[in-house]
């Protein structure tokens, strides 16, 4: 498993600083959620963490190695990245798309379809899409496309998985299922997440981006306090303790029942 860390990381777009002074330490095998309001810099920071946007300042280290010193092929053997709006080309079959995740591990121009097919099928099994390995990508729904792109990242065989809004276009069932799948992989995971309930329920730590900086970092129950949620997201929230299990829940919105359909997250 892989250890990811950043020191004094700053990222710019067009000469404008989007986020700066980011110090992260993501232990091997843990899952970190990046949260923040729209425009807070989550996707921009993610692209810097995987080497697609050079830092304006600071460094990104993967197992102690400066990511900026690695070639794109070497980076792709260490970090698997699934972008927010990345989608499979419609003229490819599902299996062909997932097999592209194996490219960094092949010699140039090499293709070994027989040995890679089982790796592709295993990746698709993780996301419940193995039965559609030979289906054209153009016939997939939006949620199925997201699951295929995650399968491509899994097939890449890296111990560090970086995801930008991985649950986009998924229904509630598949959101929960996908993040449980990611957990079972045992990888080190960094994911930009817009749903605080998912961040609280599935991740070991939460990093909150706000006003161009890392506003808070720590365990979900310590970071996602009613005060922080109100100040950063402008949403009312409260903690409730389950009288049976003793577990603390974050209730977002108008408040606790009997207000209809509050969003709950297990912390």
pLDDT averaged over residues: 87
Strand content: 25-35%
CATH architecture tag of the largest domain: 3-Layer(aba) Sandwich
Largest sheet: 6 strands, mixed
Question: What is the domain total for the residues?
Answer: 2
- CATH superfamily of the largest domain, by name, is P-loop containing nucleotide triphosphate hydrolases
Question: Strand pairing plus helix content: what structural class?
Answer: alpha/beta
Q: Please report the distance between the alpha carbons of the first and last residues.
A: 25 Å
Global morphology: globular
Kindly describe this structure.
This protein has 267 residues and is α/β, with parallel strands linked by helices. It has two domains: 4-224, P-loop containing nucleotide triphosphate hydrolases (Rossmann fold), CATH 3.40.50; 225-267, no CATH class. 31% of the residues lie in helices and 28% in strands. It is built from nine helices and 13 strands. The chain has helices at 42-49, 72-78, 94-99, 113-126, 142-155, 172-185, 196-202, 220-223, 226-233, and strands spanning 4-13, 16-26, 31-35, 57-62, 65-66, 79-82, 160-164, 188-192, 205-210, 213-218, 237-241, 248-252, 263-266. A six-stranded mixed sheet has the order 6-7-8-3-9-10, sandwiched between helices. Strand 1 and strand 2 (16-26) form a beta hairpin. The longest helix is centred in the middle third of the chain and has 14 residues, at 113-126. The two termini are 25 Å apart. The model is unreliable at 255-263 (pLDDT under 50).
């Amino acid at each position: 498993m892989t250890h990811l860390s950043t020191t004094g990381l700053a990222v710019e777009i067009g000469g404008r600083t989007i986020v700066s002074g980011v110090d992260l330490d993501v232990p091997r095998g843990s899952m970190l959620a990046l949260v923040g309001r729209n425009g807070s810099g989550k996707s921009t920071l993610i692209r810097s963490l995987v080497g697609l946007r050079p830092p304006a300042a600071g460094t990104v280290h993967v197992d102690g190695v400066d990511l900026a010193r690695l070639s794109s092929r070497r980076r792709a053997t260490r970090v698997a990245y699934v972008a927010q709006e990345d989608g499979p080309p419609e003229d490819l079959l599902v299996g062909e798309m997932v097999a592209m995740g194996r490219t960094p591990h092949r010699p140039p121009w090499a293709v070994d379809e027989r040995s890679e097919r089982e790796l592709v099928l295993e990746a698709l099994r993780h996301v419940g899409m193995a039965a559609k390995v030979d289906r054209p990508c153009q016939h997939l729904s939006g949620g199925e496309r997201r699951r295929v792109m995650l399968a491509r990242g899994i097939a890449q065989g890296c111990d560090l998985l970086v995801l930008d809004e991985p649950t986009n276009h998924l229904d509630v069932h598949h959101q929960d299922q996908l993040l449980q799948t990611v957990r079972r992989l045992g990888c080190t995971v960094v994911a930009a997440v817009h749903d605080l309930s998912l961040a609280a329920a599935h991740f070991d730590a939460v990093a909150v981006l706000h006003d161009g900086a890392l506003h808070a970092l720590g365990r979900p129950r310590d970071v996602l306090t009613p005060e922080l949620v109100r100040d950063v997201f402008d949403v009312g929230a409260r903690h409730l303790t389950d009288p049976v299990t003793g577990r603390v829940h974050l209730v977002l919105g108008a408040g606790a029942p009997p207000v209809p359909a509050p969003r709950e997250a297990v912390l």
